[in-house]
Every structure is written in structure tokens, then in C-alpha cells.
Inverse folding.
């Protein structure tokens, strides 16, 4: 991972003490919203992450037939018809492992590779590092108190001297906008899954770094908006301190 994708804890230690909290958020990612009566949060989260890296695929998700949908058409079927697969998914949802397979199939030849992972309780860095590098992550959980749900992680936040990491979310159900990793692990009983982008050769969402002082005031000298040049793989400041 590049120096720009160092952990927020390390970046906070390197910052002056006037910076109390530091957050990095990926900007301009259109959320694909889940319906009120379906179980397709994982599908919509995967579509959101996919279109963030390949915006030209967005039109395909408006297709009127499942066989023209970028994800549904590439799901493993295991002997089922596509209609049967989609009908079942409306009630029981889709597995992240199958969605990762579909994402890789539709991205074949583009230089993008996704990987499905089961996360342990200390694996927050596996989710945070791609986000810091400009790559949204799909995160799913299952727990007796919070049920089954899947979201897109598009931001990471830490406070100086605090061991907690907050994840900023794009939630297809519009229920959550942030969650603290330790609380999520506790509520999920340790059952966490992710689809992480481990290789991408194209454009990425713009990266917004926000630094705040102890009183919540902006520390403008450490705030910036950056864009990646995929030809050089270097981030260039679009908005930076004067």
C-alpha cells in the first residue's frame, strides 16, 4: 500500500497536536438504494461499489431484464435458472462470496480484481486500507441483535489517543451512516464478511481528508481534496491549504 494509504493512527501521530480527529472519505459515490420489501442489500451495496470504480456500468443496472443486469447475469447459478435465482434472492438475499465472483466476472479484462474475505475481530485495517487508497469496500454482518445487513464503507475516522475506528457508510437501506468497529464486532458476534478491491487500474473516487481540533473546529492546514491520476498512480490535490 502506498504511503498515502498509511493508517489514520500513524497519520494522526505525525500531525501536530492541534489535530484531534482525522477522517478520510471517498466523495461522489452514488448510492443504489434497496427497496422497502426486498432482501437485496448485498446486491445494492455491491452495485454501488462496482459503479464507483466503473461508472460506465451504472446504466446496466437500469436494465428491465435480469440477464442484462451486470451482477445478476454473472452470478453463479449452480444448476438454477436465472429467474429462480433472482426470485429466491428477493426473499433470502445474496451471498457476498457469490457477488464477489459476479463482480470479477463482469470486470474481466478491466484490470480490476475483487476478493471475498471473512474478517476476524481485529481486521479493521483490512477494510480501512483500501478506503484510504480510494477503493470502497463492501461490508456485511450477521448477528442476533442486528440481523443480516450489507453496506459500503466509504470513509474512515479516528481520534487522537482513542483506539476506536469509525467507518463511514453508504447504506442501501438508509439506516446507518457510521459505525464504530468494536461495537459492530460485538453486536455481530464476530461474523463479518467483506468484498475488497485488491487491484484496480482505473479512476477512483476523489478523496476528502478532514482534520478537526479538540473543539470540532476545522484545522484547514490539514484538510484537502485529492484526485488520483491512474497513469502515474499519484494523488493530486484539487483543494489544499493555501
Amino acid at each position: 500500500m502506498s504511503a498515502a494509504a498509511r493508517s489514520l493512527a500513524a497519520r494522526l501521530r505525525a500531525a501536530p497536536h492541534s489535530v484531534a480527529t482525522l477522517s478520510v472519505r471517498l466523495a461522489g459515490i452514488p448510492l443504489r438504494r434497496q427497496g422497502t420489501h426486498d432482501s437485496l442489500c448485498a446486491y445494492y451495496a455491491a452495485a454501488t461499489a462496482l459503479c464507483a470504480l466503473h461508472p460506465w456500468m451504472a446504466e446496466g443496472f437500469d436494465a428491465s431484464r435480469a440477464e442484462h443486469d451486470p451482477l445478476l447475469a454473472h452470478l453463479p447459478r449452480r444448476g438454477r435458472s436465472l429467474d429462480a435465482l433472482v426470485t429466491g434472492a428477493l426473499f433470502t438475499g445474496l451471498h457476498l462470496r457469490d457477488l464477489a465472483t459476479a463482480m470479477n466476472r463482469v470486470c474481466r479484462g478491466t484490470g480490476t480484481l475483487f476478493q471475498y474475505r471473512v474478517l476476524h475481530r481485529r481486521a479493521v485495517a483490512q477494510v480501512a486500507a483500501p478506503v484510504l487508497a480510494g477503493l470502497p469496500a463492501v461490508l456485511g454482518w450477521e448477528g442476533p441483535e442486528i440481523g443480516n445487513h450489507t453496506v459500503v464503507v466509504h470513509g474512515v475516522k479516528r481520534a487522537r489517543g482513542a483506539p476506536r475506528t469509525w467507518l463511514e457508510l453508504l447504506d442501501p437501506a438508509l439506516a446507518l451512516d457510521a459505525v464504530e468497529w468494536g461495537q459492530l464486532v460485538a453486536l455481530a458476534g464476530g461474523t463479518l464478511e467483506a468484498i475488497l478491491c485488491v487491484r484496480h487500474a482505473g479512476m477512483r473516487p476523489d478523496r476528502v481528508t478532514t482534520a478537526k481540533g479538540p473543539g470540532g473546529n476545522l484545522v484547514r492546514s490539514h484538510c484537502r481534496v485529492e484526485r488520483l491520476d491512474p497513469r502515474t498512480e499519484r494523488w493530486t490535490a484539487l483543494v489544499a491549504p493555501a
In short: Residues 1-5 have pLDDT under 50 and may be disordered. The longest strand covers residues 147-159. Residues 3-239 form a domain with the Cathepsin B; Chain A fold (CATH 3.90.70). The CA atoms of residues 146 and 187 lie 7 Å apart.
